[in-house]
Amino acid sequence: MLAVGRAVHGALTAAVVLATVGPLLLPEPKPWWIIGLGLLASVPVWWRKRAPIAVAVLVGAAMSVLVTWEKPFLPFGPLLAVYTIADLSPSWKRLAAIPAIVAVVGASLVLPGENDETFRLVGTAFAAAYALGTSVRASRSRTAELAERARRREQEHIAAAAEERTRIARDMHDIVTHSVGLMVVQAEAGPVVVRSDPDRAEEVFDAIADTGRGALAELRGVLTALRTPGESLFQPRLANLPTLIERSGLAVASTTVGIPRPVAESVEAAVYRIVQEALTNVRKHAGADAVHLTLAWRESLTVEIADNGRGPGDSSGYGLAGMRERAMACGGTLKAGARQNGGFVVKAEFPLE
């Protein structure tokens, strides 16, 4: 692309020099100083991109002197210089150049006593050169703007894809760790129940099957959403919390403070997943025999899961990080740590509009 630009630049310079100096050499060469003025009015356009104003002044002055003795068909050097000013110069230089161009061109036509037709021809040529330069500048700016928009859209798509991958990873983590963890606990209790209470063993194995079927259904929903464009993932609601608590295998006391209000589906899903992950952690690590879940509806929705277990343990997994990400994604906050009287507490707060 750069090589093409240089070739075009060189071709324009050569064309201007030939169109300006050629008539001075053929059919008979003009005096050397006239040929020198022709070269001075054309060759400097090679440097027009580096110094548009300086080149315009130089070729314009040379052409103004040249037309006193020789009148070219058109002042090609000054025309290209004016085009370059309109195309490449800053706004204030472009505006300042307009009256200067008008004054110089007018003087170069008035002093030799040109007729009205020449005034119209030359005036139209300079106006067209300036307009063409402005048009090219606007087209380049438009192209750059479109490229920037495309770049931003691409970044937004990448960010959205990354966010979706993170959300799916959190859902997969919550579904698998909760369901499989619960199945492991129930399966470990199965042999004990079989020996001590055969009648209850059937309930334990039914619970394992129900948990497995629920996990498969949720995973199937995740896979369907991944395979089907535009398909959204299943989002659990607050109404699903009682079932979650019932299947957790823990002694959970649930309390609701205040009057429940409608909230966004994303907030409901975040609350459900946070409670799900917190209960999973209690079952896997805490060794607790009592868990208290509180939903407080005030200026904000506060969700608290507190247990009387061993307190903080290994925090190297993704559970707490995933809970914080879910809360932050909905504009909320999440804190987790040891309770003063022993045990562990997870507390999330979501703003209510």
State the low-pLDDT regions, or none: none
Shape: rod-shaped
Oligomer: single chain
Q: Helices and strands, in N-to-C order?
A: HHHHHHHHEHEEHEE
Q: Going by CATH, what is the homologous superfamily of one domain?
A: Histidine kinase-like ATPase, C-terminal domain
Quickly count the helices.
Answer: 10
Which architecture name of one domain does CATH use? 2-Layer Sandwich
What name does the CATH topology of one domain carry? Heat Shock Protein 90
Structure summary, number of beta strands: 5
What's the average pLDDT?
81
CATH class of one domain: Alpha Beta
Q: Could you give a short account of the major beta sheet?
A: 5 strands, mixed
Q: How many angstroms does the end-to-end distance come to?
A: 54 Å
Q: Which band does the percent of strand residues land in? A: 5-15%
**Spatial strand arrangement across the major sheet:** 1-2-3-5-4
Give the radius of gyration.
40 Å
Q: Which structural class do the helices and strands define?
A: alpha+beta
Helix content: 55-70%
GO cellular component, one term: membrane
EC number: 2.7.13.3
Catalytic activity: ATP + protein L-histidine = ADP + protein N-phospho-L-histidine
Enzyme class: transferase
Describe the structure.
With 353 residues, the protein is an alpha+beta fold. Among the domains are: 2-114, no CATH class; 237-353, Heat Shock Protein 90, CATH 3.30.565.10. The chain is 66% helix and 10% strand. It has ten helices and five strands. Strands 1-2-3-5-4 form a five-stranded mixed β-sheet, covered by helices on one side. A hairpin with a 2-residue loop joins strand 2 (291-297) and strand 3 (300-307). Helix 1 packs antiparallel against helix 2, helix 3 (52-66) packs antiparallel against helix 4 and helix 9 (265-286) packs antiparallel against helix 10. The longest helix has 81 residues, at 116-196. The two termini are 54 Å apart. This is histidine kinase. It comes from Acrocarpospora corrugata. The chain crosses the membrane at residues 7-25, 31-47, 54-74.
